[in-house]
Amino acid sequence: MELGDKDLTVALFDQFPIRRTWHEAEWWYSVVDCMAALAATPNPRGYWSDLKRKLKKEGAMYEDFVHSLPLPAADGRMAKTDCATTEGLLRIIQAVPSPNAEPFKQWLAQVGAAALEDTEDGNKQLRSEHRLKLHTVDALLHELVSFRGIVTPEQHQALTDANYAGLYAVATERNVIEMRHLPMLSDEPMDWMGVAESAYNEFQRALTATVVERKNLQGQTAITTAAEDVGVQIRLTIERTGGTMPEDLPRYRRLSRGDWVPELQDDAPAELPAETPPEA
């Protein structure tokens, strides 16, 4: 069970509330809350402090998989607390002698899969629609600049890199793939986007095309510079309005091409029914 929104929720393990937050395309769980569930101690914060000292003494670099992230405290205010991903928690659990260890591991796997399935199934149709829109505006932009000096595959890739650069504060499309923890063989970050991330990118492509036409831009340098600047402006707007940056939005299961490419309609005329011969 979980309470809250998609970015900050409380999941329940055997009636123990486990706070978690969405960070860097993964769920991060409060380690202190997990200690309360695992060790059944009235002082989970002290238990975790003792365990950290033990791990450090044994040479376990827990800092590699534990980050301090803001979560709501008992007084309702946001306060930083130690959090870990599922992978990090599995490493911590190994050091906790608890009969709840195995049930907790199973629970972690279940809540992770359930959350992904819930968000995925509920948004798949809408994601598919936005994936098609993004493909369309992206293709139109590349078609537009083909008449303005961007011709070779390398030049088109430079434009693709620029489209992502300003919006994600990176240098290339490959950086987005790495930052979003996508399979390295993936060539389409768009296939993994949710609705909001797709919308950011749709706006960036469409506004870039508008700028190119209005300013009559020609050549790779002028066009890629404009594309990156448009992304920067959109990113600044997201920041000013308190939105979630595109790289921090949830990453979903990959949409296959069949999910978003419209089926071709058969234009052949329907077969007319055979005429009934007149009665004699």
Shape: elongated
Query: Residue share in helices?
Result: 40-55%
Amount of beta strand: 5-15%
Overall SS class: alpha+beta
Strand order, sheet with most strands: 1-2-3-4-6-5
Low-confidence parts: 1-6, 117-122, 266-276
For the record, the count of structural domains works out to 2
Please tell me how large the radius of gyration is. 25 Å
Number of strands: 6
Distance between the termini: 75 Å
Secondary structure tally, helices: 9
- Oligomeric state: single chain
Which series of helices and strands comes N to C? Answer: EEEEHHEEHHHHHHH
Mean pLDDT: 84
Largest sheet properties:
6 strands, antiparallel
Give a written overview of the molecule.
The protein is an alpha+beta fold and 280 residues long. It folds into 2 domains: 2-99; 123-259, no CATH class. It is 51% helix and 12% strand. It contains 9 helices and 6 strands. The protein has helices at 31-39, 44-57, 86-93, 101-145, 153-168, 173-179, 195-214, 220-240, 257-260; strands at residues 2-4, 8-13, 16-23, 26-30, 67-72, 78-84. It has a 6-stranded antiparallel sheet with strand order 1-2-3-4-6-5. Strand 5 (67-72) and strand 6 (78-84) form a beta hairpin. Helix 1 (31-39) crosses helix 2, helix 4 packs parallel to helix 7 and helix 7 (195-214) packs across helix 8 (220-240). The longest helix has 45 residues, at 101-145. It starts with a strand and ends in a 20-residue tail after the last helix. Residues 1-6, 117-122 and 266-276 have low confidence and may be disordered.
